[in-house]
Structure formats: C-alpha cells, structure tokens
C-alpha cells in the first residue's frame, strides 16, 4: 500500500483559503538607479508560516510544492495585473514542476492575461537546472511561447550547474548575493563570475546582481558586469509603491534555442567530418572526451549515450562514479539503463525503438569549453566524428536532455 502523506491542517488552510499575499522588491538599472520592474515574493499569514522559507519547507515535506508555487505565482500575477504599473516588469519565481501539475492550464491562463499587458520574467532557480532537466526545458519553452523572458536565479549557489546555463539560454542571469557579498576574490567566486560573463557575452543576456545592501556591494556589482541590481539599498520587499520612476533601460531578450528532433549524430554529421572506425578506436575517441571531464576544474556536464546498458562495464562504472565526485553532472543513457548506474551518475533508460539505441555519444560541456564524439552503427563498425564547436555541442545535447528524468 502507498504510504499516506502527512497532513498539516494550518498549511492546508493556507492553500484552501489563499491566505498567501505578495510583497514586491524593486529591480533597478545600475546606470541611473531607477526601476525596471519588481520581483514578487510570497508571505503567509502571521505565525509559523509567515516567511517564504517556512512555507516552502513544509510544502516540500508534504509533497505540495507545486500547489504552493502555483498559488504564490497566481496571486502575484493577479495583484500586479490590477496595478497601474503597465510599463514595469514583473519578476516571478517558478518551480518547473508547476507546469507539469494539475493547475498548469489555470496558471498559464492567469499569466496569458498578464503578459498581454505587462512584461513578465519567469525566474528559475539554478538548482532546477540539474534536478529535473526536461521539466526545466518545458518551463522555458512554455514561458517563451507566452512572450515571457527567462531569468536564471541564484547563480553561484551551486557552481556545478554553471555549465548548464547555455541549455537554459536565459535572458537575465541573477548572480546570488553570496557572490556579490563575498569578502574576498576566492577561486570559487572568480570562477562563477567568469562563467557568467562568458555566457552573457555569448548570448547577450543581462546580468542582475542580488543582495545590494550598500555602496560597496554596488561597486562590486558594477565590477561583475551587472547592469541590473536588487537589494535593500534600493528598497525592501513590501507593497507596490504608489509611484516609481521608470528606467529607460530595456530588458534583454535573447534568441531562444530550438529543441531539435534529430539525434546528435544526425545534427553533427551535417557539419563535422565522419569516418568509418572500429569499436576499439571509438572507445579511444570517447575516452579522450571523458578524460577532459576527469581532469577539469571547470563546472561541467557529461552526457553519455551508451546505446544499451550492457555496454556499461565495471571499469566504466568506476570511471563515471569518480567523475561525479568532482562535482560534475553525469548522465548515462541506454536501453535497460538503471536509474543509479554509477555513483551519483543518473541513468536514463531508452525505449527499444529509440533511434539513440543505434548511436554512441559522449558530450562534454564546461563553462567555457565543449567537445563531443558522435557515432552511429555501421556494417563495418561505426561511422564516427568529433566536434569541438561549443554551440554545436550544446545544441546536440538538447535532444538528449529532453529524455532525462528528475
């Protein structure tokens, strides 16, 4: 029998009676320190669930995170739509799983109305990048279909997911307060900053610095390349003000990535040379890519299509398991693949009729660098090629990411 979910009557009454209310914190242009928009934050009724962390902690424990996220986002959208701030943007947090839940159509209905009259920026936390990649991609696609922009939030909290920024392709990159308020230029901080600057230069995304509490933090934000800022220096969360000076700064809108239907081999073989090769030579080629993951100090993702779980031997399990201990996200795809095939690596089973069962792929994406080997079965062995173009490697990773599980 399925385990019965615990109950919390006080929390259930909050959801039932919609006693969540939004507060708003200004987001400003660093150049003129005038307002471009407001981030919506949630508060509960007075008591133990008044703060957002308390609300979301109990929601997670009770398995009601999507319900709470829907309620917070919906209430914020309703309040902002009823305001006079037609020229300002609304920043609102989303859990990607919300767009898979039972309230998806109702939520999208609320925001479809809002987006006809307002600019909306959907904020997705950095943690969601690696927790459930397909849900994340679906959320990004749905948001952009409704004309919303996408912000990647809390960047710097989990440096291991920095390499996934190009998969999300955000319009706005929000650097976490822990980076802005760091008291020294540590390797970890500089690593985050360099990765963010690289992504912003590649895509045209804007950088937003969080946690600006004084002029010193503001100077740090400028040095990080930020053009947007948020923090107590500009205003604490509260009700929407009666009036606000609208900045002339326009928010960025990057070109969204299209998720292709083709396999990595079909995509990369159009631009990169392909040669007949043997199984041992293919193993040497893929080993070279995996060796980069073994020795990198970069935030990175390694996606490996083995075609079939039978191709994952004990030596490979140890290798992939060790790579995960270096903070690298590893995904292993194959027919019959176990969900936990090696260390923290995540296994992704492929259907028997999936075209990927006739291919082999190793794709490595770092914050600044990417490489990949792609191959397809052939009567005399394999047709195989190598790609070192970061944009093409990232693009060829997207159809694999759509197959990943949470």
Description:
The protein has 406 residues and is an alpha/beta fold. It folds into two domains: 221 residues, Alpha-Beta Barrel (TIM Barrel); 138 residues, 2-Layer Sandwich (Endonuclease, Chain A), CATH 3.30.870. It is 36% helix and 24% strand. The longest helix has 17 residues. It contains 14 helices and 15 strands. Helix 2 packs across helix 3 and helix 3 runs parallel beside helix 4. An eight-stranded mixed β-barrel has the order 1-2-3-4-5-6-7-8, surrounded by four helices. Strands 9-15-14-13-10-11-12 form a seven-stranded mixed β-sheet, with helices on both faces. InterPro entries: Cyclic-di-GMP_PDE-like, DICT_dom, EAL_dom, EAL_sf. It comes from Asanoa ishikariensis. GO terms for molecular function: cyclic-guanylate-specific phosphodiesterase activity. This is EAL domain, c-di-GMP-specific phosphodiesterase class I (Or its enzymatically inactive variant). Pfam families: DICT (PF10069), EAL (PF00563).
